[in-house]
Amino acid sequence: MIDLNSTIATNSPFYLLFAVGIDDQREIIATAFDSNDNQVHSVLLSPAGSGFAHVEGEVGQLGAVLPRALPENIRQTISRRFGIRRK
């Protein structure tokens, strides 16, 4: 198993939360937290050579950084998506 966050550029605003699927071209659809707008988005990861990081035509340094804390609205969205209830 691979932590997909280790395959995207370090300066990416996205932190991948979970993968949803993969196609025959090795493209991965995932759900990610966007630190620019504090929202959750679906993203498409496309392989670039031997890795996934590809920033404006150049392979960048790899490894997205986990945000210090996810905003409460994002935590609630994830909880609803997976049926997680607080005690």
DSSP, total strands: 3
How many individual domains?
1
Percent helix, as a range, is: 10-25%
**Which of globular, elongated, flat, extended, rod-shaped describes the shape?**
globular
Uncertain runs: 52-59
What distance separates the N and C termini?
A: 31 Å
Structure explained in plain terms:
By secondary structure, the protein is of the alpha+beta class. It has one domain (4-82). 13% of the residues lie in helices and 26% in strands. The protein has one helix and three strands; from the N terminus they run E-E-E-H. Strands 1-2-3 form a three-stranded antiparallel beta sheet. A hairpin with a 4-residue loop joins strand 2 and strand 3. The radius of gyration is 14 Å and the shape is globular. The termini are far apart. Mean pLDDT is 75; it is low at 52-59.
SSE diagram, text form:
Blueprint: E1 14-22, E2 28-34, E3 39-45, H1 72-82
Antiparallel strand pairs: 1-2, 2-3
TL;DR?
By secondary structure, the protein is an alpha+beta fold. 13% of the residues lie in helices and 26% in strands.
Relevant terms:
alpha+beta, 3-stranded antiparallel β-sheet, globular
